[in-house]
User: Fold these one by one.
Assistant:
Number 1:
Amino acid sequence: MSALPIPEAITRRFTLAEQAVSLPGLAVSLLKPRNSDDLISEADYVRDERLPYWADLWASAEVLASYILERADEFAPARGRALELGCGLGLPSIAALHRGFDVLATDYYDDALLFAAFNTERATGRAAATRMVDWNALPADLGRFDCIIAADLLYEMRYAPVLADVIAQTLAPGGVFVLADQGRIALPAFLDDARARGLEWRATHRVDAPEGVAKPNITIYELRWKPTAP
């Protein structure tokens, strides 16, 4: 592990913890807030129902990171520009950087970007570029990406059409959106909305929790633009 110093912007505001993650061929230690409940802001929730989900490592992010490490040659052999939506602590971005993508990690919480930048640099030697992105006011200069990655975003129905619009506006021709999902409520609506915008999807991988282990079953979906008629 690199001895990269933790930025003061993190140390002065957060009580910290480390979480070890074993990925295929890569061991990672993620810096994170010790307790995400300590970060709940009533003002944030009243304004737009924001909760600090970014501060926990979700099982879907681990599955997505493993998938990127093991399957990048299949779903994005040319690598290129990658966009992570809802990057949180940055684990999938770490995997994407490790596999040679040029990564932009985005989240709706500025605090998440502090941790994602630190964790990616410590794990790979180079920090992912970061940017705060509100899906409802997508920056006009965000551009298009060869690969978009995301884990566990569809836990509210209102996100289905919004996420479909974001993918339609940011996925490059010939690109792929790779989503890890544990069967969240808005997944079916999102897949329908994505299809209506010209994308087609397929489930490519499933990880079932071991019997007796309190973890969700997680499926990887790949979405691409439908072929155009000649």
Number 2:
Amino acid sequence: MPRCAVVIEDDADTASLLEFALSSQGFDVAIAHDGQEGVALVTALRPDLVTLDVGLPGIDGLEVCRRIRPVTDAYVIMVTSQADEIDRLIGLETGADDYLAKPISVRELKARVNAMFRRPRHFVESADAAPEPAYVELPATDEHEVLRHGDLLVDVDAHRVWRAGEEVELTPTEFDLLATLMRSPTRVWPRALLMQEVWGQSWGETHHVEVHMGNLRRKLGDRRGQVRFVETVRGVGYRLRAAS
């Protein structure tokens, strides 16, 4: 069955380029030219991938990303013509998985999409689904992987995380980073090795690791001087702090 992609882009030339690149990767592509239409398409189609222009008319790309995150775990690539690093960081904090700068390189887009889809995807339930019961701890088995570290619990198969009994909402990339750290709790993970493990690539900017790791630590409640879960090993990378 073909994968589905939604392109949310107001520039016709860029939209056509994205449609061509993703179609050649085997996606069925739908195009929205503004934010409202994009939210509606994502809600209706439940795509596997969304490319999202930051500078949309009306509802901008950052707000679109916030609105679609509760209804989809699709990979989201923000597309921006702005060189300001702050815009990119804000885009990633809304739940985006990556960003591309205009003018778009088709080769780079394909490489990043392929890297993302080498990681398993997990779907959210629809908004009208029946409420889920409170989480019950299950023993880890060959069929059901559960990771524990202090009062942090990760149900890998359900793609859910709890801290001190309260559920923590993570993006797919943040979840993959946390699960990687928790599977080897005493290991120090260099940024380049995390790129290979989580992104499936040994090339690229380790800046991506730093951005997503910063978002993960914030959601887990880690603060400067009050690190409980993920600590930085200066000049090397990251590791889990010993459970107290």
Number 3:
Amino acid sequence: MRRFLVLLITLLPVACFAQSHYYESYVIKPDGDTLKGYIKYLNFGRWTECPTSIQFKVSRDDHKVLEFTPKTIREFHVIDHEAYLAYAGLISADGNTYPIAGFKLDTSKKLDTIFLKQVVKGKYLSLYYHNDRFKTRYFISENNGTPVELEYHLYFDNPNKMVARPMYGALLISLANKYSPGDEKLMRKITGIGFVQSDFEDFVNTINNTGKQP
């Protein structure tokens, strides 16, 4: 009996620690139905890469664990933390992280189904983020429409020189002309937008705060 109690006391913190990884959440199914529960959320509240699947419980102490992928749900929200949208479509296929980047410009695309992290959700534009071990990607959507990737390519011109090819400028100019026509300050700002989240956030927030529905 004493040995059993010692074992129970030893295992109890482990069980509590495992349960503590499940955060209050909800998922939205393809038909629009909402399922409330708890999602396993590791790394102290962050995924180092966008998840390819999630583990879900209806209650924290539930022994039944459901697994959802971007093919089986429309979106999921970890309350007070993060939200992810399922995206199915073309994404850039090249790598843009060192040393994965290639030795020539590669603009090829591939069909994939992935989770996009919601960065900004606005009345005109929304910004999303995706990363895996090959590449970081950003996407913009209009009025909750299908997200479009902000294309960016990185490659080695020679073994010691890397070349960056941002190809999202035309899309940003088109959006600025659509929602904030005649805003010369915004147009000048676009020329300095780098492939960094804060620059894209600033652009999207500017449109959402000062733009007008065309």
Number 4:
Amino acid sequence: MVGLLGLGFVTDFLDALGVGSFATTTTSLRLGRIVEDDDIPGTLNVGHAIPSLLEAILFLLTVPVDMLMLCTMVPAGGLGAWLGTSFVVRWPKQTIQRAMALSLLVTGILITLRQCNVFQSDEAATSLSGGFLLIAIAANFFIGSLTSLGIGNYAPTMAILYLLGLNPKAFFPVMAASAALILPTAAFRFWKSGRFDRRTAAGLTLGGVPGVLVAVYLVREMSVYWLLWIVVGVLIYSSQTLYQASLPKKES
């Protein structure tokens, strides 16, 4: 149980820094052969639901966020998760994964160039309006619909909001609130079906709560300069994992 508590702490700590928790937890569970593959999705949603809710609440209380942006983008993400499944699942999963991998990589390169002062830009905004807000709402709907393919919302949301000129610290309340709307809904369905590992889910929850508390404080105090380098790392990591997931599976 100690190992599961540690896994919950680390994965939800990284989640609150923007890395996301699903890919890291799935990798750990599979490497350790802790949970049957069929029960991993339910275990992730149930185990990370409460830490995700806590994360959203803390970011909303401690990080300034524009309410218009929050109250439009977050419901759009939830609506995308609810309605988008019917049409997104018809698209080739491999094509979506590779396209997103490329877009995240390009965004990471653009941020790196800015960090190295290759080109100058104005100070990032803390809110979006007009056409930029409409683009962000549509993008969050689309990102929400991708949850049916097992693609997390953090890295794509980071990429879109940064390219629209939003301050990196303003990413986190929007991302966390979107996840807090999606995960508990999915967790409730998995709980009713019983398709999850109860012991592992409990460990993720109990370890994840303190992980979120530590990370949220760190994000609030971190300078934007260093936060952007973390964003670059997240985008490159997510790009690599998406590309790897798109490769044909080798026959065992």
